[in-house]
Each structure stands twice: as structure tokens, then as C-alpha cells.
Amino acid sequence: MQVKVGQESLVGSEYDKLRQFNEVWEGRRLFTACIEFMLWYELAENVENGRGLPESEKSYWAMVDAIRPRITFYATGVDGQRRKLKKDSFDLFPHTLRLTEPNNIAGRNMITMLQGTEDDESDVFLQGYLWECCFQRFGLRIEEVMNDPEAFVQRCVQVVAGIKFKSGIGGFSMNYEDVYINSNIHLCDPIVGRFPGVNVINPWRYRDLDGVPTVNWLTLVSTADLARLGGWDAVAAQVKAPIVMHRLPHGALLQAGPRPLLGDVNEQERLDTYHEVGRLLAPVRSTTEVQSKLGGGRLEATRWMHRFFRPQA
Questions:
Q1: What is the dihedral sign for C-alpha 260, 265, 270, 272?
Q2: 3-state secondary structure 229-265
Q3: What pLDDT digit, counting tens, does each position of 89-107 carry?
Q4: Residue 69 has pLDDT above 80, yes or no
Q5: How many CB atoms lie within 10 A of CB 38?
Q6: Which of 136, 230, 280, 282 has the highest count of CB atoms within 10 angstroms of its CB?
């Protein structure tokens, strides 16, 4: 299979070197290469009139629209049979948002659709989580995004349009359930060692960190962090092509080049634009250790999380 990216032709097997690390158990994909966009935000900052999260609902529907045409099924039952997606499954998230009092809220995965089995290519997913610190994320098949990366960027802009976010990233990623990977963190080791452009930390781990915890192809910068950097004009004056700075109602989205990169060390693929974004954002880098055992413990995981804030060797 070939897909066109600008004037380039990319062969599907180009990304099989990342997909070789996919993990499947009993026909269900538990660890899957994709291109993902995630953001995290404070619940209290996005509540209107003490009830509901209207902007989060709009964000959710923008994510739904991104994956809707690709959904082939919702889940696999205990009998191994696929269950067709029900319309009210989509409606669960906004219904929860409208009826939940912020001071009574309990942690809940509002809607999670982890798509794909061993014998198909449905690598799409959508997840939202409500708590004091929330996150939302969605992902698409690698080739689909690489075929039109600008369309993916615009979709991400729509997703965050009204959210007062803390930060967020988009790019190559491994989609998984946090509980699963927490017990199998060793699965990340070969990816971390070879593909620095691939995120392997779940948004659950990023959601309550201060500042900008990490950088990727797409990186969200909040209004507060822009102010700490001197404001929009001060940051924009330092941005040089191919980096693009997208203005948002509550901050900015920094895009490190026209498309995401793996940074394959075996191919000596450099990530200079990622490191340049990291340089720009270093003054607002998160100072909190991430609660992850990646690489051996919190110190090692935090160092990996901060990899693009350091100059590239």
C-alpha cells in the first residue's frame, strides 16, 4: 500500500518497524502504534455556571467526528463476538457532562473505544476522563494522518478551540490502557531506545503536572505559560520555519514541521525541530516528576519526558 504525502510516496511497511512492537492478547490489541492527540485540563477552569462542561463536550464531538467514519465495532464480548457500536454510546459522554455536579464528580472513563483486533486495521480510539484534572485523547491510523497531516492538525485545533487547557501533545504514540502498561512497562524499552519521536506515557500520567511536561510534533502551550514566556509576540518572534505557531483562544499550538517524525536512531533521523520547540518552551518546562516506572523509575521517566528540552547531540 502506498500513500502520498506531498511529493513523497511512503510505503506502508515504513511504519511496520514501529508496529512490530504491537501487543495482542486474545485477539484484542493492547499496545498499538498510532498517531495520537491528547490534552489535559483542570475541571474547575472549564465549568460554566456550576454545571456541565460545554466546551469539553464540543471538544469531545470534534474527536468523535474524527474517528466516526473509521469505526467498525465497539467492543468484543466475552464470547469473542464483536458488538456493534450503539448510538447511545456516543451520547454517554455529553450526557455525563450535562448532569454531573463538579463538587460531586467521581473519576470516570466517560467513553473509551479502543479499536482493533489481530485481524483488522482499526487503529482508531477515543478516550475521555473526568476528575479534578481531566484528559481527552483520540488517535488515528498512521497512514491516514501521514496522507494529510495538515487535516489532522486542523482537527486538533478544533478539538481544543474552547478548552482552557494546561498542555497537550500530538504525534506518533503507542495506544494502551494505563493499567496494562503499568504492569508491562518493559514493552516500552525498545521503543524508547530507538524512536524518540514516539510518546509512550499515558495522558493519565501527564494530567496533573505543572507547566509543559513534554514536547512532540504538536505541543499545546496555555495562556498562562505563554505569559511566562513573555506573551504571544515574544514567542512568535522566535519561531522559524518549518515550525508553525497556531493561535488558539486559550493559548497556542506549536507544530514542529509539516508532519510527525519517528526519529529512528537506526536511520539517524534527526528531530531538530522537536528540540527547537523544546528550547523555546524550556522556561516553562514542568518541574514535577512523572509517576511512571519508564526506564527504571520516576527520575529516569522524567528525564525521558524532558528529552526534547535538551539540545540534540
A1: positive
A2: CCCHHHHHCCCCCCEEEEEECCEEEEEECCCCCCCCH
A3: 454 444 444 444 443 444 4
A4: no
A5: 28
A6: 136
Question: Residues 115, 125: contact at Cβ < 8 Å?
Answer: yes
Q: Which of 298, 5, 272, 43 is nearest to 149 (CA)?
A: 5
Please check the confidence at residue 7 and state whether its pLDDT lies above 60.
Answer: no
The span from the CA of 157 to the CA of 239, in Å, is 19
Q: What is the pLDDT of residue 26?
A: 65
Residue with cell 514501529: 18
Per the structure, the count of domains in the chain is 1
Distance separating alpha carbons of residues 262 and 135, to the nearest angstrom: 24
What integer pLDDT is reported at residue 14 of this predicted model?
Answer: 83
> Domain of 38?
2-309
Residue 149: asked if its preceding bond is cis (omega within 30°), the reply is: no
Nearest 5°: the CA angle 34, 295, 124 is 15
Cell of 282: 524550556
Tens of pLDDT along 170-196? Answer: 999 998 876 667 778 888 999 999 999
pTM: 0.85
